[in-house]
Amino acid sequence: MAEQIILNTDLYDNLLTERKGDYTAKPRITGTLYNTDIAARIVGARTEYQHGTILNILDMADSHKVQAIAEGKSVVDGVGQYLVNVQGAFEGEKAQFEPGKHALGITYTMGKLLRETLKLVKVVVNGVAAVGPVINTVTDSTSKAINGQLSSGGALVLGGVNLKIQGDDPSIGVYLTPTTEGAAPMKAPVVIANSPSQVIVQMPTLADGQYTVSLTTQYSGSRNVKEPRTYTFPIILIVGEGGGGDSESPDEI
């Protein structure tokens, strides 16, 4: 019998309504898994295949899926269905695709296996979250991409709650950290705007790759807390080729 999956969530004030006591729940994101981690999980299930063999198959599957999607094919797996889409307006019948004006994105529809699994998840609501910084959106001011592409050295706009960078601890600030193991966080050198609901910083020079963004502050409304609090945005962000923009539909990623 499969082990019960438990998803822990916390309650946050619903910013879309002024009604007192109205909250939204957010899952606790407890980590990020890559193909090597998935391969390790499969090995842990006592398969006869070696970790390296499984990892190689997963990587090859990713490569072929990506190529098929880019060719305009619909790709369906246990996670979902993926279709390429074109974003941006075209003016006139002879208009052509312009990279600076248009972009390719992905439309995602949840797959049956994932849909059926989510029905079996036990959701635990742990009450109102401790008051601290929460990043809801990350916007790259250069490309206007939301929760996706980053531009090295450009301005980064963080939207959320209790974000104001405040306090005397040397750790406070906004950090971008490569997702590679052991990589050191890089602190944003300049704070352009600083308020509880929005922080704008200048990003450091970033090499192409994948990054997480985090914010550390002692701000807590009327007074600073003694120990700094850190919030790490759960979505991986991309610098350089391979990044995607935001979506106009909840079914797009």
Question: Can you walk through the features of this model?
Answer:
Residues 135-231 form the DUF4469 domain. InterPro entries: Bvu_2165-like_IHF-HU-DNA_bdg, DUF4469. By secondary structure, the protein is an alpha+beta fold. It has a domain at 132-239: Coagulation Factor XIII, Chain A, domain 1 (Distorted Sandwich), CATH 2.70.50. 15% of the residues lie in helices and 35% in strands. It has helices spanning 35-44, 51-70, 112-119, and strands spanning 6-13, 23-27, 75-76, 80-87, 103-110, 122-128, 134-140, 149-150, 155-161, 173-178, 186-187, 190-194, 198-202, 209-217, 229-232, 237-239. Helix 1 (35-44) crosses helix 2 (51-70). The protein starts with 5 loop residues before the first strand and ends in a 14-residue tail after the last strand.
> CATH topology of the domain at 132-239, anyone?
Coagulation Factor XIII, Chain A, domain 1
Strand content: 25-35%
**Whole-Å distance between the termini?**
33 Å
Q: Roughly how much helix do the residues carry, as a percent range?
A: 10-25%
Radius of gyration: 21 Å
Q: How many helix segments?
A: 3
Molecular shape: globular
